Amino acid sequence: MEVRTMREHRFFPPVLAALLVVFAMAARADPPTLRYCEIAIDFSLDGKRIAAPSAIVEFGQEAEVTIGDPDGHAWRFRILADAPTVDHRVTIIPVGIALDEIAKNNAYPKAAPQLKAVPGQRADIETIFGNGDGRRAHLVVVANPRSDADIEALRANGGNDGSN
Q1: pTM assigned to the model
Q2: Other C-beta atoms within 10 Å of 58: how many?
Q3: With contact defined as beta carbons under 8 Å apart, do 160 and 38 qualify?
Q4: Residue-wise pLDDT tens for the chain (164 aa)?
Q5: What are the residue boundaries of the structural domains of the chain, listed by start?
Q6: Which of 3, 17, 107, 115 is 20 to 30 A (C-alpha) from 69?
Q7: DSSP 78-119
Q8: Phi-psi category of 46—alpha, beta or left, where left has phi over 0 and alpha has psi -120 to 50?
């Protein structure tokens, strides 16, 4: 029969704990880096719904959506979203939207709100167009980060994510 001293028994728990830490660090996978954001906008003018565009925006790259006929009348949304960040313990996505009214191929800037969107939360923006225009605009903006897998699934479905 083998007899172990207390000194030998003290060796095993620290070694076992160190091995568990090494395995836990090796098994921990970092979440995938998000490169895209889906921006959905609901645009109303003087209480009448005009358009509800959405766009997949790569963080740091501007996306453009035009609703209507630029030769006659249209609205152009230029959307820029920066990577999510934490502000006062809340994850936010900095979003800028430049809204232009287009008439006979001439663009007239109407609004350029900058907001800190909380992912998945609705942000309401009310504004009155200046330069003697006076129309009241209402923008509802929702920003949702999207993974590469989400983008591939959207492309595979022809851009339709199945929601209505």
Answers
A1: 0.74
A2: 13
A3: no
A4: 565 555 555 555 665 555 555 555 554 555 567 899 999 999 999 999 999 999 999 999 999 999 999 889 999 999 999 999 999 999 999 999 999 999 988 999 999 999 999 999 999 999 999 989 999 999 999 999 999 998 888 888 876 554 44
A5: 36-156
A6: 115
A7: EEEEPPPEEETTEEEEEEEEEEEEEETTEEEEEE--EEEEPT
A8: left
